[in-house]
Amino acid sequence: MTKPFICALVLMAITAGQAMAHAQLVKADPKVGSTVTTPPARLWLRFSQVLRLSGSGVKLSTPDGKSQVLEPLTQDPKDVRAVIAPLPASLPPGRYKVSWRALSPDAHHTQGDFSFTVAH
Ligand SMILES: [Cu+2]
What confidence tens digit (pLDDT) does each residue in 6-17 have? Predict the structure, then answer.
């Protein structure tokens, strides 16, 4: 096959499988929408594929309306598709929003958000 033809096929595959081809959040800890009674020390996010860490990021919006980038974002040494972001120490009770932005190996971004609540 000629090179342009292969490229066209790849493009068609990407367009057809948009959701499949890109990193989507599969699992999180704290769980999506959950309420935890112990303030978590870190956020664990598992995606449908390996992320490029340099182009990915996680932001935390706190109950007081502020937001901060959670750094550094690291790969879970036990799971190549999972990343770990540190959380500020002893989060006060309230509802937190996590906004993530992921860079897939094919250089496309996906993003999403979810909330979790810290209760007494
Ligand atoms: Cu893509």
Answer: 555 555 555 555
- Taking the model in full, what pTM does it have? 0.82
Gap from CA of 5 to ligand 1 centroid (Å): 18
pLDDT of residue 120: 80
Task: Name which of 107, 102, 95 is nearest 30 in CA terms.
Answer: 95
SS3 readout for 23-77: CCEEEEECCCCCEECCCCCEEEEEECCCCCHHHCEEEEECCCCCEEECCCCEEEC
59: how many CB neighbours lie within 10 A of its CB? 16
Instruction: Give the Å distance between the CA of 23 and the centre of ligand 1.
Output: 9
Tell me, in angstroms, the distance from the centre of ligand 1 to residue 106's CA: 5
Rounded CA gap, 90 and 81, in Å? 27
| Chain mean pLDDT for the chain | 89
Q: Which residues pair with 102 in a beta bridge?
A: 110
